[in-house]
Amino acid sequence: MYKVLVIGCGGSGAKTLAYMMDQLRADLAVFGIKEIPGCWQFLNVDTPLQEEEGQAVGSVSKQGGAYVACGVASGEYAVVDQALTERVQQGAPEGLRHLATWMPRHPRDVTFPVTVGAGQFRGIGRLLILSKLREVSHAVEAAMARMSSPESQEQAARVAAVVPGAGTVPDISAPPLVLVVSSMAGGSGASMTLDVCRLVAGANTTPAIDPQLISVFLYTAEAFGSVPAHLRAGMPGNTLAMLGEIVAAQAGAQGTTSRQDQSLYSLLGLSNQAGRAFKRVTPIGLKAGGSGAVFGDGTAEGVFRGMGRGLARYISSPAFRDYVSYDIANMVSVPNRQAVSWGVDPTDMVWSSFGYSSLSTGRDRYAEYASQRIARRAVDHLLDGFKLPGATTGDTQRLADLWRDRASLELNRLALPQPSTSTVLAGSQAVDQATVSWILSEQTSPTVNERTLRERAREVVGSLFSRKMAIQGGITPGDWIQTNERWLLSQEPQVTAELSRTAALMALNLSKELAQRLADNTRLDLAELGIPYALTVLTHLRQSGGVLAALADHLQAIGNADRTRPLAPPQGTMQKVRSLGNGTLGSEGLRGLDNELQAQLSEQVFYWLAAQVSQDLAPVVRDLAASAIKPLENVLNDARKVLEGARADKRSAFGVADVATDLYAAWPEEAPPGQVAAVPQRFATAHNEVVLMGVDTYAATFGVHVKEAAPVGARDETGRAYQAVVQQVVTGEWEQGAGDPSPADLLTVTASWVPQGLPGATQGSLPTPARYELRLRPADLLRRARAFVSRRGESFEAFTSQSLRGFLNDDTVGDHERDQRSQAVQAGLRRALEMARPLVEIDPQVYATLHNGDRPRLAFNFSQVPFRNQPVAGEFLDYLSHSDAFDTDLVVDNFNRSLGDDDVARVDVFGSYPRSLPVAYSGLLKSVAEAWDAATGSAGAREAFWRFRRARPLAGGLPMGDDERRALVRGWWAATLAGGISRDPWSQVNDQHSVRVWDRQEQEWVDFPAPMLTPPSQMIAPNAWLPAVLESSLLAYLRVSREGMAAFRPWAALRRWADDGANGHQERYGSQTPVETMLATLLGQGAVDGLTPVVDLTAATTPAERRTVLLAFVDAVCQDLEASYLPGAGKADEPGRWTNFRRRELVETAPLSVDLAAEMLAELQAVRQSLASVVPAGAAASPISFGGLEY
Description:
Layout: E1 4-9, H1 10-29, E2 40-46, E3 66-69, H2 77-91, H3 122-129, H4 133-147, H5 150-162, E4 177-183, H6 188-201, E5 214-219, H7 235-251, H8 256-267, E6 280-284, H9 300-315, H10 319-328, H11 346-349, E7 355-360, H12 363-384, H13 395-414, E8 423-426, E9 429-432, H14 433-440, H15 450-466, H16 477-529, H17 531-542, H18 547-560, H19 571-578, H20 587-648, E10 689-691, H21 698-709, H22 718-731, E11 747-751, E12 771-774, H23 778-789, H24 795-800, H25 804-808, H26 815-835, H27 844-850, E13 859-862, H28 871-881, H29 888-898, E14 906-912, H30 926-935, H31 939-946, H32 962-978, E15 981-982, E16 996-999, E17 1004-1007, H33 1025-1031, H34 1033-1043, H35 1049-1056, H36 1074-1085, H37 1103-1125, H38 1153-1173
Parallel strand pairs: 1-2, 1-4, 2-3, 4-5, 5-6, 7-10
Antiparallel strand pairs: 7-14, 8-9, 11-12, 13-14, 15-16, 16-17
Protein name: Tubulin-like protein
Organism: Actinomyces weissii
InterPro entries: Tubulin-like
């Protein structure tokens, strides 16, 4: 594993990160991991003060990432402008020069509120983020701290332990890889990307972040083709400006571009010494390279999802190691760079490409579909299960009818007496016969019934007689009676107390059994007919005059009936003894009388005990209604409200990779009778996801699996089977089989009911109402549905857990089916290969020009392919070997190295082109070129195209490095002196007229594009031609599709006036530079290539005179540059003298020359030095020598 910091800039970056996190969460959930490990950090940087929510997935922060808002609380741009102006001027008197040529000339020019965005203007967007540099920097440092925390290490260890191919836990001291995702086209993201990269590279973290490990993924304007035209009006100009700035940042590492950013940051109070901002750029368009096929449905959202999914799989795949070792570390050669990237190491300049797809069974999504569909049906059943389909009867009447029909069943299951009008005598009173039978029935209670009551009575009397002193023979009957009466009377208090305790304990046991049956029966009622019916049953039990109230009255009547004291001398036995007269009783007779007395007393005690239990039960039964049933009704009503609320909640679910959701509205619905159930759109796979089980097969497959998963007795019909499955999921009870035990957690008694009226039996416990936990929330039902679907060895699990290798080698199917599956896998691999093409197009002609005739050959990398020694692998290798659509040898080798035999569920495919310079990416600027072409005829349209697009001084916005830019500036001065620049006089300028440069190599004039991005009509000053010409080098990129690399010819011709090195400056000791050669000719002959010099040399007849005239012109220009454009103490600071910019008003008239004035002066001075010292052509002089030998 690698430590990875992923940063999204702007809306497109935020959406991509959200999809990326959603995919990671889904992939990790398969292995029981619920959180993204902290070694992968996600940071969203955007303009809105409140992070925006996506439509399909949760925001970055809601999924565990962080958010930095770069917007401002005030909606007025003028507030931002004033604050920023004051800060840079406080930092340095001339600080405003950093902003002068690209910030709005007047604050009033920005008419939209900046609280929620940059209005699709890059320039405005950067001004906003400049006020939030410290916040972004702190957020990066906080993310790095989280990444290195012990908790993150533990999370990474869990992932490494259970996720195949995840690798080992990252070294805590290793620097992270950083992926920045943004767009080239927007206002916010495109404006802040480079600053974010530089802030990351310069962040104060341990370990330090290596800018060589920072990669940028950028959506091009093409990716937004589905956006309505009026919503993407600013995208073409933003894209072009972003191209210039990002190429300048690549080419200017450690150079002018980085120093300008560092200086501006310093003025704003932030120290950042990052020279390089990032290593690699990967553009992302809409069309697949090579085929030109539009990605998916052509929407930007589809591209965001596809990229988010691909990047998630990338950082979690072994293929990421190839990216680190190859794309970042390896050197790159671009042999022919005369036109672009001159003077820069191509390794720093090349861009990458990225494509992704996967092949899987797709059954993991089906498992979640099945779980959610069962859970939704369970919710519907719990709320509507009592209803008859199609019936017009009201709910109240339907529930009343059900109670009438099922009352006897309910009472039987509760072991309560059935209603009866029969009575029986208890003493002299008539009592309810059904209640008496209920007390004595073993069906009522295994612990309180006639058998147990008699047993207890015999035990009490037997214990009593065991303590009785034996009476010797020879006693008279009268004495026997008197002795026993006194003895019974003496024992009665003790025995009565013991019997009272026994009765209370028996009543308590029976109350516990009643409470248990109540819970059990409620579970059954919920499963069978739902919550409203279960509440109806409880109401009939509890209500006044209801079942329990009547039972309590009957029990009280039994308890109040006349009853003999438990140890009252049995009159039958006593009368029998009296009838014996005055004789004496022998030992044998005494034993017989004692046995009879014991039997009679046992019978008396039994009746007394039964009556006492009844009497004790009467208040218990009443309290059962109040303290056990009422709390149960309350939790059922709460559950009903929760489910009704869930069913009324119409919010959309977040998650497309992680389709898990607790939202009822997002769960699959049941189809009307006779129709096929529709599958929610969010279950649809991403456009770069190839699955062997299509979403359209879910419904039919579900019907088969439901029948197979139902209890054996319910499998005869799908509807009956489905109902049985739903009932099992409601209760959480099913046959365990080979897997984990069922949860059985529908209804839990969290606090047992302690009834009133039995203080002696409850051992001092105070009467306590029962408390229940009813797990019937949508999340509870879904959890149980998932557990049901995942039962090991059952129909759903056996299907959904099958790996790709298992899919091919399934012994339960026949040869024909296996052959069909092999063909499906083969077709899936080919389609995955096609879908993994990078979303960017390479121009083969431009690539060939840059790379010495080579072709841009596609390459593919693979995660583990579990088909080693399988026929399908050989067939696919044969297909690869005979294809010319990619680098065959490399792809075949990569595929062979990836073959394995693990039971993986997915094969990831990553596609890429060889790295090349930005100009080779043909799809990058197609829509931009179209927009510019459409605008060229209208000054207003051109102004709208370019207004507020550039977000840096010109040196940081030109697509070239320092050497090339300086060579172009020097070449301009050289060509100007020789007359090699042709343009309209300032008084007669026409935007449609081209500036021309003389191509000394081809001996002809070459036109720069016209109109330019900053045409003469907008130059403000007559000495801004050179900056405007250099700025319009961006337009060459728009013309490549029509003209090829010849589009860059004017700038190459201009550069050759100063330096004719092939790919960069080449020192040649002892040889003249092109400037020196030209000046020598100009001085010696008065003209170069027949051109008319910038100053009239006709009167100067000697080289010395010519030198004097030319030096005077050069000195005048140098003096004007110094006085008008460069800062310094005591200089004029007013329109026409743009030096220190102490006043904001100077920005209103600042020309482009402000940005390049220092370089223009330095290069002109270098030309002057050559002019002053060069030996004129034709003059007698020693050849130039460096003082060494030539050999």
